[in-house]
Write a structure and sequence with these properties.
By secondary structure, the chain is of the alpha/beta class. The protein has 15 helices and 18 strands. Strands 2-1-3-8-7-6 form a six-stranded mixed sheet, sandwiched between helices. Strands 14-13-15-16-18-17 form a six-stranded mixed sheet, sandwiched between helices. The structure holds adenosine-5'-triphosphate. The site of adenosine-5'-triphosphate has 21 residues, from helix 1.
Length: about 475
Amino acid sequence: MNSKIAAGILISGNEVLFGKTRDTNGPFVAAHLRRSGVSVQRSLVVADEVFQLKRALSYLAEDCDLVIITGGLGPTVDDLTAEVVAQWFGVPLSFQELAWQTCVQAFARLGKTDVPETNKKQAMLPLGCRLIPNPVGTALGFELEASVHGKSVRVVCLPGVPSEMEPMFLASVLPTLNTEEIQVVSRSWQVFGLGESAMQQRVLELEKQVCSLFPEAVISYQAHLGYVTYSYFAKFDSAQMAQEWENNWNVRLEKEVQARFAHHIVAQNDQPLAQTVLSALQRHSLKLSLAESCTGGELSKECVAIPGASRAFLGSIVCYDNQVKEMLLNVPKDTLQEKGAVSEQTVRDLSEGALRVFQSDLALSISGVAGPEGGTERHPVGLVWFGLALGAGISEQQRGQILEKLRLFGWQAEVAREPIPGSLSKGLVLTCRQNFGSRSARHIIQKRAVNFALGSLAALSSALQ
Ligand code: ATP
């Protein structure tokens, strides 16, 4: 295939269409194609119906050279991809011994020797197709290419199960696209504490200049409820043009974006924020622990999603009930009664408690009212308090840098009341009050709380550099 590939994605499946399964295949394929310089035109989710699938395929083939279909390769009556693609290309289905053997071997790996007759359906594939190996599951992928509407269209069919589809796509589809000559340049920043429209105002002129010189440049704002990934993406047909971008724009863009977003930039990549945080903590040999009340472990989940998290993340106590706050993290009963579970004093105590229990270098705590019930005038729905205790592993100088940075995002500091573990000196405890809106849904308040914590930790990490 040449360097100007236009691609379409077809997700087959009622489950996905009706919201029972979240589509991860489309975004996975689209992200990889884009990174390789393929121009992804559109992605469709279509019901398990022959008519709809054929129609979608025709629609995509109108202006795409490559169509990736996922799903519908199984043995049941609603698995229609092979039939649809055969009809669309005008070829019959034929029994493929290799596809059958793949199925038999997949059963054998599970210790089963009797393969149901119904699985024979998975070996009935369009005549003349190229088979795509599936090292894990029962269904082989396949592809066909033919001239349609006066141009060549390649249709690649992969299973719906992501753990099968993803390695097959990476091993057998992506490398065949011959996109080496396409040069992709991209640059991303994670911007914390600044809304999209405020961001847009600051960079409007800059964006106009970039787009007038590089009309193919795509600028995007990916909002994550609390921080925004700001990206520039461009692809060039020649190394010379890409070099021109690198020479003339990369450094300038970097400087201009830095100048406009200043301290709001907490990371300079498009990695998950938790990854940025944990890598930075690991570089400084620091360990993090958490005490989560209203977020119920969601922040911890973000951390453990990162491979190698244990190098910087020790664990979390989900202290939802007040007794847990009291018994495991030593929050005094009086504090909980007088100040309430959602209070500055409680998050201070929670973070100091986590620092002590985990013997970590820093501990972050979250306690808030996620609603929809339980709000009062003093503690309305959406109110969330954050605490951050810094232990002995963090030097005086680092504390100063952290304090200076976090103050910009609403954090305030006090010297801890008790000596911190491993040291005779007292630590530093910071707290921050946020209101994420009394009308927001429970899961939105929780997500905002997690992202505020991540953004703050990323800001802290950048202050350590
Ligand atoms: P199998 O051979 O296992 O039947 P298949 O190719 O027929 O695979 P489907 O039956 O369409 O695939 O889907 C199997 C399972 O894969 C679904 O139940 C769902 O859990 C998952 N799946 C399918 N499509 C997607 C998708 N687009 N995103 C995420 N998961 C998906």
